[in-house]
């Protein structure tokens, strides 16, 4: 009888941890989703205004950011929308939200109180990350919905709905990777929220720059070391869903979370 009650309490607390984290961050998730979706939609809607002259005026140095084919609908979307704007927002969402999942509670002294409940550290970490994942999916869905809404009016009919969905999946996976990196980093090191955010965002921006500028220095293979290559290198808007690229992003997320969980369960939380 005691075992059943204890198990029920543990399960209830785990569910409440997830749902409470989602609830507490509902405004954050909504703002990120609305802002990212609105910006992506706005930039996509500019496609009919693009002229041959403006497309040709793009500097060669920016070709690595997806601006090498501005003449087609898919090429345009892979540039300003999914090549420049959206991935950076994904990095900053992952870094900012992931830094809140463990680091914020430890910094405020609330983590010990949470762990006094009948739930293990790994379960707490995974429940928090699952809540972050909800936000990542909502962001990707908002971007997808916005682009499908203006698809016809913006002259983007050449890109099928399935290919838009494929790119949205890659966006969600990229967001989860940086969210997992921030969450795992905070759990593994116990550093404050600002530090975790800064390190994660710094890694993201550095990887973004390497992916974009590597072709200019004849080091294309370096792109394969960055998550952005697996996010958009397979050109989902032209070729559809890329299972291998998706698997690489998912595996990287599992890896950083596993390392974070391993360290989190072993380190002393006392300050």
Automatic annotation (TrEMBL):
UniProt KW Protein transport keyword: no
TM ranges: 28-46, 76-96, 129-148, 168-188, 195-214, 246-265
Keywords: Membrane, Transmembrane, Transmembrane helix
Membrane as UniProt keyword: yes
Pfam family, one: ABC2_membrane_2
UniProt-recorded name of the protein: ABC-2 type transport system permease protein
Native species: Actinomadura algeriensis
């Amino acid at each position: 009888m005691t075992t059943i009650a204890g198990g029920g309490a543990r399960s209830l607390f785990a569910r409440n941890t997830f749902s409470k984290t989602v609830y507490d961050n509902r405004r954050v998730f909504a703002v990120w989703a609305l802002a990212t979706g609105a910006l992506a939609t706005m930039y996509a809607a500019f496609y009919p205004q693009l002229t041959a002259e403006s497309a040709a005026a793009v500097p060669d140095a920016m070709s690595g950011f997806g601006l090498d084919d501005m003449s087609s609908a898919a090429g345009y979307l892979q540039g300003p929308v999914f090549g420049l704007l959206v991935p950076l927002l994904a990095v900053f969402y992952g870094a900012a939200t992931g830094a809140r999942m463990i680091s914020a509670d430890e910094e405020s002294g609330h983590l010990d109180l949470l762990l006094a409940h009948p739930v293990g550290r790994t379960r707490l970490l995974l429940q928090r990350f699952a809540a972050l994942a909800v936000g990542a999916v909502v962001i990707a869905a908002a971007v997808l919905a916005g682009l499908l809404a203006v698809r016809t009016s913006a002259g983007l009919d050449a890109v099928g709905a399935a290919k838009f969905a494929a790119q949205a999946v890659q966006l969600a996976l990229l967001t989860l990777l940086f969210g997992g990196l921030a969450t795992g980093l905070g759990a593994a090191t116990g550093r404050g929220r600002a530090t975790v955010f800064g390190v994660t965002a710094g890694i993201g921006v550095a990887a973004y720059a390497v992916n974009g500028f590597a072709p200019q220095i004849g080091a294309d293979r370096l792109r394969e070391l960055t998550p952005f290559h697996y996010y958009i290198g397979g050109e989902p808007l032209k070729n559809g869903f890329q299972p291998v690229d998706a698997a690489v992003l998912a595996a990287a997320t599992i890896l950083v979370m596993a390392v974070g969980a391993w360290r989190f369960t072993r380190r002393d939380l006392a300050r």
